[in-house]
Specification:
Blueprint (H helix, E strand, L loop, with lengths): L21 H4 L12 H8 L9 H4 L7 H9 L3 H11 L3 H7 L11 H4 L7 H14 L15 E5 L3 H12 L3 E5 L8 H4 L8 H13 L3 E3 L10 H7 L2 E4 L5 E2 L12 E3 H13 L4 H4 L9 E5 L3 H12 L4 E6 L10 H9 L3 E4 L1 E7 L5 E12 L5 E5 L5 E4 L2 E4 L3 E2 L3 H4 L27 E3 L2 H4 L4 H19 L2 H6 L1
Parallel strand pairs: 1-2, 1-4, 2-3, 4-16, 6-14, 7-8, 7-14, 8-9
Antiparallel strand pairs: 5-15, 10-11, 11-12, 11-13
Helix pairs in contact: 2-4, 4-5, 5-8, 6-8, 9-19, 13-15, 15-16
Protein name: Glutamate synthase (NADPH/NADH) small chain
Keywords: 4Fe-4S, Iron, Iron-sulfur, Metal-binding, Oxidoreductase
Organism: Rhodovulum iodosum
Length: 477
């Protein structure tokens, strides 16, 4: 009698891929988790209960067919599992690495709620597509026929690349414009290699290039080429610029040397990983080696900064966050990884100012959580008379990101934005106030997740295809 492949969660315990020891992984920027072997991936996939109502799927922004590809993996039908995973997700191997599964699919797994430990969905997702690449199942995009229409995509991050993929599969000509010298956006220059090795991103960019997508890099729209020129050149335009403007911090001494922006710090580190020359790193400005590092913030960017500083050989790394551990926005899994690697979290603290120029310390206010605000979160309150100074040689501000003023930068006042400065776009079609111009990802949502940008890019591609199918509207442009 053939053994039941699924519903093994009672007999088989949850088991994550092996994680390298903290003292070893802190010495390099390689990913910290090993890959599942075939047998282990099948075993862990077989823990799925095959729910009639799969909450993992409904809580995934892409609504991936998770129970189906778990079953196929458990049965050893890996090529079919890959095809099903790729059908709803442009970059499953990237989402498997960097999605906060504990807040999305795995956090809503039924067997997790029953106390048996979640199915390791993210790790299996990563395994499936990594295996597909290794075995040659990932093919270049080959549309059945080419179309004459062209679409200009501004921004080569996850939203723009997901749209480019979908449009090329439909035969549309695609040109992607990006200000950086490599495509990938924050996946390339923002997220450290220990979470997402860069080869994983670059091979997807190469797949798009091989499919006929054109990349115009080192191109700053509004300076090197006008937004109006891009609109004139293409039948439709997609804005997927992301949000890169760092939130400011108003405090005495904030302009001192050694008080740096998180994105500058992470970009420099990632460029070093590519072998680029980075003067700000080489002169020590963005290198934490031997320094006392203080990171301000509690999101995933702050986690990336503290763990990068450890790998650069910092003398000490502390993270200040104004709320407690339970109320921080970053992934709890990332906090655990950081603590294992030697990061100290100083909860309920906020910067009041900075000492010295170059910086020598952070003036810190101790906080407590007061009554809930309108969103239901408890509001941090200052504890009077409890201030102290935290010694620091480099302070990294990881306070989040805001949109740039695109209507001004692009000389297009008709492009409507919200009161937060994000582009105003229809939440279904993603069309903006300008006919034939669409917008997706963080420039619409504000700073968000890669998986949401992928969803937006795929949806916008469908809307653009519908728009291109209306000759009268295209001609009117």
């Amino acid at each position: 009698m053939t053994k039941q492949k699924m519903l093994q969660f009672v007999d088989v315990a949850k088991e994550m891929p092996e994680k390298r020891a903290p003292n070893l992984r802190a010495q390099d920027f390689d990913e910290i988790y090993a890959e599942y072997g075939d047998a282990k991936a099948a075993e862990q996939s077989g823990r799925c209960s095959q729910c009639g109502v799969p909450y993992c799927q409904s809580h995934c922004p892409l609504h991936n067919n998770i129970p189906d590809w778990l079953r196929l993996t458990a049965e050893g039908r890996l090529e079919e599992a890959y095809a099903m995973s790729q059908a709803t997700n442009t970059f499953p191997e990237i989402c498997g690495r960097i999605c906060p599964q504990d807040r999305l699919c795995e956090g809503n797994c039924v067997i997790e709620k029953s106390g048996h430990g979640t199915v390791t969905i993210g790790s299996v997702e990563k395994y499936i597509t990594d295996t597909a690449w290794e075995r040659g199942w990932v093919k270049p995009i080959a549309p059945t026929s080419e179309r004459g229409e062209s679409v200009g995509i501004i921004g080569a991050g996850p939203g723009g690349l997901a749209a480019a993929d979908a449009l090329r599969r439909a035969g549309v000509q695609v040109t992607v414009y990006d200000r950086h010298d490599r495509a990938g956006g924050l996946m390339t220059y923002g997220i450290p290699g220990f979470k997402l090795e860069k080869e994983v991103v670059m091979r997807r960019v190469e797949q798009l290039e091989q499919s006929g997508a054109e990349f115009v890099l080192n191109c700053d729209v509004g300076t090197d080429i006008s937004f109006d020129a891009i609109r004139g050149k293409h039948d439709a335009v997609l804005v997927a610029t992301g949000v890169y403007k760092s939130r400011s911090l108003q405090a005495p001494g904030v302009g001192a040397a050694g008080v740096v922006r998180a994105l500058d710090y992470l970009t420099a580190s990632n460029r070093i990983g590519f072998g680029d020359a980075v003067p700000e790193y080489e002169n020590g400005e963005l290198d934490a080696h031997g320094k006392r590092v203080v990171v301000i913030g509690g999101g995933d960017t702050a986690m990336d900064c503290v763990r990068t500083a450890i790998r650069q050989g910092a003398a000490s790394v502390k993270c200040l966050y104004r709320r407690d551990r339970a109320n921080m926005p970053g992934s709890q899994r990332e906090v655990q990884n950081a603590e294992e690697e030697g990061v100290e979290f100083v909860w309920l603290t906020a910067p009041k100012g900075f000492v010295g120029d170059p910086v020598e310390g952070v003036m810190v206010q101790r906080m407590r959580l007061g009554p809930p605000d309108a969103t239901g979160r408890q509001t941090p309150e200052v504890i009077e008379g409890a201030d102290y100074t935290e010694d620091a040689d480099i302070v990294i501000k990881a306070l989040g990101f805001e949109p740039e003023d695109l209507p001004t930068l692009w000389h297009e006042t008709a492009l409507e934005v919200t009161r937060w400065g994000t582009i105003k776009a229809d939440f279904r079609s993603h069309e903006t106030s300008l006919p034939g111009v669409y917008a997706v990802g963080d420039i619409v949502r504000g700073a968000s997740l890669v998986v949401w940008a992928i969803r937006d890019g795929r949806e916008a591609a469908d809307s653009i295809l519908e728009y291109l199918a209306q000759p009268a509207q295209v001609a009117a442009e």
